[in-house]
């Protein structure tokens, strides 16, 4: 148990193992990008071609399991500590866990009301559909962390926004990292609600750029 996060089945042997593989997941509009961006700044490699949402394009299901397994093998050969972010990996993760070395899962959670409103607003979904999506994905996440035998860390997006330094200290500990204060501060700076950071946003697709710009305009209007 950590003071600002919750862990299951964690142990020092896994946490300090030279080889560690992280999977960051949650729900759509649930804070996975903020969490992944901070973890990336703490020093965990999350891929090269990750775009503005920090999701590695080489881990998309449409590429097929053989392609994803090949990517995992390549990462294992080149990195001792690495991972990837996917909002809801339930569609393939059971088939890939045997290929992951020392898997450590990071589940990002978000308040039901905030998430439903976020999906309804930014993704233009009806409220009842957005709520159903949240409930379905959350149930799958709960089933997943109970089913696997690997260490799991629960990170509250709300707590991350309110106390980013304390939450990220817990995250760094779970990741087996001991970042200097400067690197921790750099990670904390990434956590800003509703906006990708300039450095990480340079690879946004046109659709993501338009949505990102629209989100900024909406926030400016709300501040008036």
TrEMBL record:
The protein's name: Sulfotransferase family protein
Record-linked Gene3D superfamilies: P-loop containing nucleotide triphosphate hydrolases
Source organism of the structure: Shimia sagamensis
